[in-house]
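Quick illustration for those who missed Monday's session on complexes.
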Amino acid sequence: MKKIIELITDTVSQVFEKNGYEGKYGHATLSNRPDLCQYQCNGALSAAKQYGKAPINIAKEIAQDLQGNPMFSNVNAVMPGFINITLSDEYLAGYVNDMAKAENFGCEGEEHPITVVMDYGGANIAKPLHVGHLRSAIIGESLKRIFRYMGNKVIGDAHLGDWGTPMGLVIAEFKRRKPDLVYFDDSFTGEYPEEAPFTISELEEYYPAASALSKEDEQFREEAKQITYELQNNHRGYVALWNHIRDVSIKDLKRVYTSLNVSFDLWKAESDAQPYIPDMIAYLKDKGYAKLSEGALVVDVKEDTDTREIPPCMILKSDGATLYNTTDLATIVERMMLFSPNRLIYMTDKRQELYFETIFRCARKTGLVHKDTRLDFIGFGTMNGKDGKPFKTREGGVMRLEHLVDSINDKVYEKIMENRSMDEAAARKVAVMVGLAALKYADLSNQASKDYIFDMDRFTSFEGDTGPYILYTIVRIKSILAKFRQTIGNKEDIAHYTILPASVLPERELMLKLSRYSDMVTAAYEELAPHRICQYLYELAYAFNSFYHDTKIITEEDKQKQYSWIALITLVHDIMLAGIDLLGIEAPERM
Ligand code: ARG
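Prediction with arginine bound:
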């Protein structure tokens, strides 16, 4: 379905043409005076110069012609030359009815669907997930859904960190604590055990301990470095232990991501790109892209137009070791080879912005991607505590993701128990769903690049621009629909009810909001901006609640009117569900 704003533009443009002006002046926009009109066209102001006429005269001409069109209830010219436009209630209701029948409510997908690799999550093996990884997972999941909704093929990759020094540190820590493990016996030639010699909670302790120790203990640090080197050069025992570390860690990560309603198509990791490195380096050298600089192999990526210092992209360190850059470039090679994507989108916190700029330039310059391959980086801000500093536990440590989620769930649980009649077990279940919505919505409703403050009371509030408010509105509609079905005895099929033209303002406002669904989805898609969806859902929920406040649906005697309202709120319900699904949020049946 065409967007309503496009349909208005088409109609207004035709009238401009009919009156001897260029059609481009008929461009319509949302009204910036919603108290006066719903849409507006400022074309007469721009046309005035070209045709040497007063803008208001052109506007009057056009408005007069449009006035008779059944699409509009009112079109008028106002000084200095605006055309104010209001749709007729019949037209608006017709459009909204069409939406109810159309696939995806009339939201048309991408004309030329593409293949996209999305790199989000980015958790590190053997390190517990913390809130810093939360945003990447939440934003990535939402963008993946938005891109799919628009008809694209999306491959979501967790791109786990499993290759650098942290691995050496963890193995060194194993060696220190459990030196008798067979993995450290160089004379051992048999099969290594299938069972991991540790649990996840044990493993989680290792990295922080090793990292702290390496800061004080030079010898330990050197050992970890040596182990990293040997691991990367296929030391049999280390590789076997490392595989256990990966397995145990990934199993746990899968559990946590599942609980966050975040999923990946691929669970690839940095190590998966290693086989692509030798050929890539040979290529970069042969083609003359890479050169030695102070012993290191680098690709120069500066451009004449740069206004800031862009460092060269280092491919190999002076000791020949590979680094994060090398892995990311090789991952690009791998992705191009396996999936031929048209676009790659990365999500990490914005401190990696310059890093990705360097990687993208290098990939482009050296032809690792095609000329028209799009590379995007979405850098997000930090989640801060009320003190404006990165969010910490009460003890000042890094907050574990699971603890954060638990504390939100507890808070929501309390609220549900306070004012609802639900047994404890049911309330616990609902609290998990609503708590997750509170967290995700709070994160997604902020523009990604901005920092935001973690405010538990606000996030979990059932009122205002929050996840719980959105869910509460959905649940409210569900309950009205259920009550209505009871009154009509569950026999009748309510799917064929038609929405009649609005008779009161809140009803009209609600329809108007609904009619803008596809504009919103398209904007969220084009701008890589899930916060657009949140904003829309909030406005829609608000519009619904105002309408509901003024209307007694269940007791309405005029059946035609009542059925129309049922159809209307069914559409609100369905669109809200589609909207939260794009955010990776689910709604309970009750709350
Ligand atoms: N593991 C990295 C980190 O924790 C994030 C990975 C992001 N993706 C990438 N292709 N570099 O910082």
